[in-house]
Amino acid sequence: MPELPEVETVMRGLDPVMRDSVIASVDVNRPDLRWPFPVDMKQRLDGARVVGLRRRSKYVLIDLDRGETLIVHLGMSGRMLVTGAMIGGFHHSHVAPEKHDHVVFHMQDGARVTFNDPRRFGAMDMVATDQLEQHKFFAKLGPEPLSNSFDAAYLYDSLKGRKSPIKSALLDQRIVAGLGNIYVCEVLFRTGISPLRKAGTLKKQQTEALVPAIRQVLEDAILAGGSSLKDFRRADGELGYFQHRFNVYDQEGAPCPTPECSGEVKRVIQSGRSSFYCPICQR
DNA sequence: ACCAGCTCCTGCTTGC
DNA sequence: TGCAAGCAGGAGCTGG
Questions:
Q1: Can you give the pTM of this predicted structure?
Q2: What is the mean pLDDT of each run of 10 residues along chain A (283 residues)?
Q3: Residue A159: helix, strand or coil by DSSP?
Q4: Known catalytic residues of A?
Q5: Is the CB of A273 under 7 A from strand B?
Q6: Contact A106, A27 (CB under 8 A)
Q7: CA–C1' distance A164–B2 (Å)?
């Protein structure tokens, strides 16, 4: 899916359109995505004022004045596209409805936010804002990688004794929240760690290096507006451009980008997902 | 407790 | 050109 940087990018694009604005009405065009929507979702959204937008892990959180929060997950192919809004002096005109436009938010000022998701792995739910942490999406989630609670001591402790590959451990949202396949591959390249290494066998120094590397990759990607492979678009419809900066992800057969390294980027399947790495400089 | 594998779904790309 | 297989950014669930 969109991983943390893509979700952050979408949230930042929605913020100026939705914050302090009233949702005049919502079209709910089907009863579910990955899970059923709340049966009364439309009634709970119609007429509500948005008081703020946040991100937690790969979820966009839309806080409403009624003490409720709308939770949005983009799954693999979900988009939240803004049309009909004045942004930076440009008017984004409405476009014809498309296949897979599952939920449409009509803002009181005429802007429109459309949730489109061909694969329907996305999700929406609503919860009392003060119960958010207890919601099943968040109850077992690890720390935000860009927060202070994510540090070397915590990560070392979490990986200690783990027999699974470090690749799988960093994809485990209970250990750290928000990383996906792309950014884990890039982080492991930057730290010179093979995705095949058992998590519990990392040297303390390597675990310590992972923390700043994770922060750096995510911050770089956010600055680039995320990565657009096939589906991802920012809320204004533009592409992200971090995909041009991949060192290893989707680079099978390319020469290793490390200076002086004679390696070639290799692809292996780990628990059903592609891992890309240089077998020479990642150990 | 931990871990690998399967599953949901559509659509694009690849190979014969 | 046509068709089928393979693959895709997630993550909950099952069974070992």
A1: 0.97
A2: 93 97 97 95 98 97 97 96 88 89 97 95 96 93 95 94 93 94 96 95 94 96 93 92 94 94 93 91 94
A3: helix
A4: 2-3, 58, 273
A5: no
A6: yes
A7: 9
